[in-house]
Design goal:
By secondary structure, this protein is of the alpha/beta class. It has helices spanning about 15, 45-50, 100-105, 135-140, 145-155, 175-185, 195-205, 220-225, 245-250, 270-275, 290-300, 315-325, and strands at about 1-5, 15-20, 30-40, 65-75, 85-90, 120-125, 130, 165-170, 190-195, 210, 230-235, 250-260, 280-285, 310-315, 330-335. Helix 12 (about 315-325) links the parallel strand 14 (about 310-315) and strand 15. The longest helix is centred in the middle third of the chain and has 15 residues, at about 145-155.
Length: about 325
Amino acid sequence: MRAWQIATFASEPRSALRLAEVADPEPGPGELLLRVRAVSLNYRDLLMAQGRYNPRQPLPLVPCSDAVAEVIATGAGVSGFAAGDRVCPLFAPRWLAGEPERERVRTTLGGPLDGTLRERMTIAAESVVRPPAHLDDVEAATLPCTALTAWSALVVHGRVRAGETVLVLGTGGVALNALQIARMHGARVIVTSSSDEKIERARALGAEAGVNYRRETAWGKRVRELVPEGVDHVVELGGAGTLAESLRAVRIGGTIHLIGVLAAGEAPLSIVPVFMQHVRIQGIFVGHKESFEAMNRAFAASGVRPVVDRTVGFDDAPVAFEALAAGPFGKVTIRT
């Protein structure tokens, strides 16, 4: 079978990736053999290829963690699955429920374990979930990390409620899933973006307002003009480069859900507002199987569809990585 591999770390995806012929996998006891039907990229995958996520990661490595796949065969002792079933593998295959203990989360797909950007793979039967039936393959492939991270932030940890206000940074995959999940729960949403056109597209998805952070460099202050008391939740995807403005935007007693590191560089940061305003900063590490299943039930009931910016063929995987680096509106996916 064919598999894409990170052969060497490089700033350009075309230099990092190679298409290789590898042995066909066989399911062991308790495992499923899957034919991968679609793969979705995360910013983590780009960082991994560039050597910025884990420079000590052994190579070659099959990248990517998000996919939807079809069951081809089952190993000994597997019940409840049959050939033709559609499933999504878990980002952290051992994290089925409970707290994210080291043993449960230290092995994840796309690094350190081989990931999903291949034609076939095996995985423990307990480490997959069934995606909502109304989603097509490329939509379903976006769920394991992107959607579940947004769900974990706002629903599991944030317990978002109707009438609250959520500030979402950017218009990438996690950001737009957060927008949709917040609206699903009756919350108001404000987005930030460097593009007026993307802000308008976010408004079409239900955002109440948008702030262009290129024009409004002190965008936290602008958010406080829109919501004088401050927002209840910030879906923080920039990291050190945006955290100071997020602290300016959040209300006393509000929550900043710390997820990404998309903003370049670092800005001076005073932690005084954290304790003076009783702000909760919650790190988010995707989520476990039980949350994934709960999220899928909510998506199925509401009919929400993840936003896909672009889909390319399996042979064009480097093009997908380049599209991700360019800043898509929603997800970049690969059909296998």
